[in-house]
Amino acid sequence: MNTPSLSMAGQPGKRQSWLAVGAVGLATFSVVTTEMLPVGLLTSIADSLQTSTGKAGLLISLPALLAALFAPLVVLVSGGVDRRRILCGLLALLVVANIASALAPSIVWMLAARVLVGFCMGGIWAIAGGLASRLVPAQSVGLATSIIFGGVAAASVLGVPLGALMGDLLGWRWAFGGMALLSASVLIFHLAVIPPLSVSCSTTWRQFVEQFGNRRLWFGLLLTLMLVAGHFSAFTFVRPLLLSVSGIGSEWIGGLLFAYGVAGIVGNFLIGISAAQRTEASLMAVALGISITALLFLTVGGSPLSGGVILLLWGLAYGGVSVGLMSWMMKAAANAVEVATALYVAVFNIGIALGSWLGGQFVDAYGLSANLGLAGLASFVVFLLLFGIILRHKSCAKKQGPD
C-alpha cells in the first residue's frame, strides 16, 4: 500500500517551497479563525438574530463536531485529485461561508453557513496536516509542520481578538466580512505559490480499514483525545477561573489571553522542532507541563500575579500539543499520512467538544477547582503512558544488545 505521493511539475526552489508552507499555514489560520470567531461575538449575534445565547453556542460546537465527520470524508472523496486544487476549492468555500454568515438573516441561515465552515475545517486540516513532508526536504519537516500548525496558534492570538475588536467597532457582520476578504486573499496567495500536488494513488476505504490494526496510530489517537479533552475541559472556563480563583480583574483578561496565545506560538515552534526527532519525549514535556499548571493553579494560583504567570506556562505547554501529536501520527502511519491526519483531525475535534461538555458538567456539579484537577489528572495519565512507552523501548533495546 502506498500513500498519495507528491508529483510536482518541476522541483520548486527553496524560496517557493517555504512560501508554499507559509500559504498552508495561512489556510489553517483562516479556517480556525473563522471557526472561533463567534466566541467573542456570541452575545451580539444572539441579540441580532433574536435567539438565545445557548442556541447561539451551537455556532461553536457544530463546526467542531462536523469537522470530525468531514475530515475522513474529504480525504476519501478527494481520490486522486491534485491536493492544490482541493485546498483552493476549500478556501473558496470558506469565502462563501463567511459571506453567508455576514448576510445571515436568521439563526437557521447562520447555522447552515457554519455547517459549511465545519466541512472546510475538516478538509483543510486533513489535507494540510501532512503536506510538510511534500513541500520541504526531510530535515526541514519539523519546522515546516510547526509553521503549518502555527496558523492554529496564531488564530487564537490574533484572529479571535481582532475579530472581536472589529465586531465591537463595526458590528459582528463586518467581522465575518473581513474574514471573507482575508480568506479570498489567502486563496489568491495559494494560487500564486502552491505547486501542483498531484498524487500517484488515491486514499481508499481499504487504507482506513488497514489502519485499524495499527496499534501505534490508535495509541496516538488515545493520547490526542485525552490531552485535548482534558485541556478544553479546563480552558473553556478559563475566564471564571482567572476571575474567581486568581482574583484577576476583568479588564486584564483580554491582555492575558493574548499573552497566553503568544506563549502558545512559542511552544508550538519549540515542540515542533524537537518532536521530529524525539516525539515521545516532546509529548511527555507537553503533558507534564499541562498537569503542572493545573497543580500550580490549585496550590499557588490564588493571586493575580501567580495566576497570570501560570496562565503563560499553560500556553507554552499547550502550544505544542497540535504539532507534537501530528508528528506522532506521521511516524505511526508513514505510508498512509492522509489517513492518519484525517483520523487525527476527527479525534481532535471530538476532544474539543467532549472536553467542553465534560468540563461544564464538572463545574456545575463540583466547581472550578475539581474540574481543573480532572484536567490535570488526564494530562498526567498521558505523561505516564508515554513514560511507559519510553521504558519499554529502552528495555527492548537492552535485550537486543549491541549489533
UniProtKB/TrEMBL annotation:
The compartments listed are: Cell membrane
**What transmembrane ranges does the database entry give?**
58-79, 86-109, 115-136, 143-166, 172-197, 217-240, 252-271, 283-302, 308-329, 341-360, 372-391
Q: Show the coiled coil region(s).
A: none
Q: Where is the Major facilitator superfamily (MFS) profile domain?
A: 20-394
The superkingdom of the source organism is Bacteria
This protein's UniProt keywords: Cell membrane, Membrane, Transmembrane, Transmembrane helix
Q: How does it sit in the membrane?
A: Multi-pass membrane protein
Matching PANTHER family, A to Z? CHLORAMPHENICOL EFFLUX PUMP RV0191, PURINE EFFLUX PUMP PBUE
Q: What is this protein called?
A: MFS transporter
- State the organism of origin: Alcaligenes aquatilis
